[in-house]
């Protein structure tokens, strides 16, 4: 799942790690972290004053306020990035991301001289980044905005500079999920997904369903600790893959 388009978005690595903590059923949403990185340009600094990140999917719209100082994006290149925001987004088809810039504070520095960047679209509706990819419920993503400074800054000819962003897109899901149904539901077990020293726990609901969103890819041991008089049950070698939900189906617990 890879693309390269102008005014687009990259979804890349988001790691998920937990140790002995409960996870809630977040069915219906995908966790998205928005990061910014840069492809180098021949400038001393390129400073963006970002106000909001707006993420639009077929499930709805999320507006994330970016609370921070203006960012010199040239500091984040050669594999470095900076986190702008993290948010739960309605699952569905990812359609558009918009970067809304503040009216002031956007600048380019050339040979020690600072110039204002004219960014009219970014100051109103936002710089629109078109992308078409699926956000799966319970799967974690990173939205890496790979800004190409060399192509994004345009000289007007009268000593002024316009910002016309060119952004590279590399979509990828970076976690998986695990689900299933306990039979009978009356066993009401606590369920633990264990990989190495990391343990994630949840509780089966009234219908017997259990759900682990945002699991790191790997092989797990799944333990079921039911109420009396039901017996403990273990399932070994459960493989979780990035970008998919592993369904254990019906898990029968006996007395």
From TrEMBL:
Q: Does the keyword Signal apply?
A: yes
Signal sequence annotation: 1-17
Q: Which superkingdom heads the taxonomic lineage of this protein's source? A: Bacteria
Enumerate the InterPro entries for this protein. Carb-bd-like_fold, DUF4382
Q: What range(s) does the DUF4382 domain occupy?
A: 29-165
What are the record keywords, sorted? Answer: Signal
Kindly give the SUPFAM superfamilies that the UniProt entry links to this protein.
Answer: Starch-binding domain-like
Output the Gene Ontology terms for molecular function.
carbohydrate binding
Protein name in UniProt? DUF4382 domain-containing protein
The organism of origin for this protein: Mucilaginibacter gilvus
């Amino acid at each position: 799942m890879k693309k390269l388009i102008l005014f687009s978005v990259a979804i890349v690595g988001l790691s998920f790690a937990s140790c002995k903590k409960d996870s809630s059923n977040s069915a219906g949403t995908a966790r998205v972290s928005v990061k910014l990185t840069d492809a180098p340009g021949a400038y001393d600094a390129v400073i963006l004053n970002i106000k909001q990140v707006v993420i639009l999917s077929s499930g709805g719209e999320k507006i994330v306020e970016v609370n921070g100082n203006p960012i010199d994006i040239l500091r984040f290149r050669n594999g470095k990035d900076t986190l702008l925001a993290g948010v739960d987004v309605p699952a569905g088809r990812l359609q558009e991301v918009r970067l809304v810039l503040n009216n002031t504070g956007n600048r380019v520095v050339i040979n020690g001289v600072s110039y204002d960047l004219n960014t009219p679209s970014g100051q109103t509706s936002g710089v629109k980044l078109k992308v078409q990819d699926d956000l799966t419920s319970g799967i974690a993503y990173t939205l890496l905005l790979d800004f190409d400074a060399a192509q994004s800054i345009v000289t007007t000819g009268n000593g002024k500079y316009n910002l016309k962003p060119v952004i590279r897109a590399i979509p990828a899901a970076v976690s998986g999920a695990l689900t299933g149904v306990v039979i009978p539901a009356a066993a009401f077990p606590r369920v633990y997904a264990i990989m190495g020293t990391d343990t994630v726990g949840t509780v089966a609901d009234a219908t017997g369903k259990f759900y682990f969103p945002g699991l790191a890819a790997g092989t797990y041991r799944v333990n079921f600790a039911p109420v009396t008089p039901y017996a403990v049950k273990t399932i070994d070698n459960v493989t979780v893959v990035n970008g998919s939900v592993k369904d254990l189906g019906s898990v029968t617990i006996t007395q």
